[in-house]
Amino acid sequence: MHMTRLLPLLLLPCLTACENTGASYMIDGNKDHSISVVREQRYFWGSAVAQKVVAARFPICQQRYDIADGKAGAGELELYEVNEVLYVLHQGNNWWGVGTEKCELQAFKTPPEKYGDLLGKFRFDNGTFKFVATKPATPPGK
């Protein structure tokens, strides 16, 4: 077998080592109104993972923002609700306000005075990155 045919097979483990994942919090269970965190490891040899927040309220807006890098396979981002269109995202020393009324993001230099109730965390659970709610969602009609 020629070396050129083996090369793609030899490079395959390098590609599988990269993280490319995301998770969403659907506001009031509505897929058109959500906050998502997307993580992408650009290089298999590095531990840094580029993170983005996506604020969406269809059909009004959808916007993606870069936030501080995370670490591959690790990390937690807490999500707090201030009101039905204003949320706070927290990771380490970083705090961001996420508005879904116009799909905006604001970085805070210090923690905000009021950041609302903890809704849950974007985190790894059994090897899968997902949003884990603090309390189970109330079924519709209850």
From TrEMBL:
It comes from the Bacteria. This is Lipoprotein.
